[in-house]
Amino acid sequence: MRYRELGRSGLSVSEIGYGAWGIGESSWVGATEDESLRALNRAIDLGVNFIDTARGYGESERIVGQVVRERAGDEVLVATKVPPLNREWPAQDGTDPAETFPGEHIRTSLETSLRASGLDHFDVLQFHVWNDEWMGRGDWLETVAELKKEGKIRLFGVSVNDHRPESAIALVRSGAVDSVQVIYNVFDQAPADAFLPACEEHGVGVIVRVALDEGGLTGRITAGTTFPEGDWRNRYFRDDRPAQVEQRVAAIVADLGIEPDAVAEHALRFVLSSPAVSTVIPGMRSVRNVERNTALSDGIPLTAGQLAVLAGHRWQRNFYS
Length: 321
Hints:
The protein is of the alpha/beta class. The protein is 35% helix and 13% strand.
């Protein structure tokens, strides 16, 4: 496993991190706790030292906390998230920070997460949504400073609104944030325009989520793909979206001259090709996926030609809406 600096924080994180939404047994159907525990332990065995969870991910914080406490001899960094008080995803323009992240709510959510996980602190506390309109308003910044001073968190971050990297550039430039979590993948390359350069310039760590487009960039989504009842992907990949994805991925396969099964590998290597990226956090609900993804931390980059091909497959859209 190779490691990168998380911005200016002084922390070193595995370039392949662990996205723990899927193991929470809430929105993603099919995870079992036994397999999740095996997957998390295998990831740590293979050098993963960064796990991302959230208050809103069902049982995820509890499961992650159990493994991290049992592996106390391994230095594993855990990030969690505070949901907005008004429960609005993404953050809407015109809202007041008192409606989303008042200090009392931030503290209460963190204390709940600490109890659920059994941990005595989190390495990164992130707001689960963000809007630059909140800069200079509310008491969120003072609360974050207090929590750092109390030793309950080490770093502060935000999870940037889906497909809207421009909504957090002012925060990045302000020096108030240690890390940002952002959607960045072969289809959504918008962060590379201005957001990632700003993070690099200001020493802000970058945690990349949705690098595989919720499964779209695995080569396994086809026009006939279905998901279990209650799985949130039924909404994400509704109507003719699976057919659109299948066509787009087929074009990538053809242009790169690779097998469909190699799409995920190339998609993750594309993300890691950016020097601004600190870690990428694919969701991994099985030991098999852990072993496949961590094997990509081998220092072998995509060629300039391959990167140029993938740059041509930018596809701006929002399946969350």
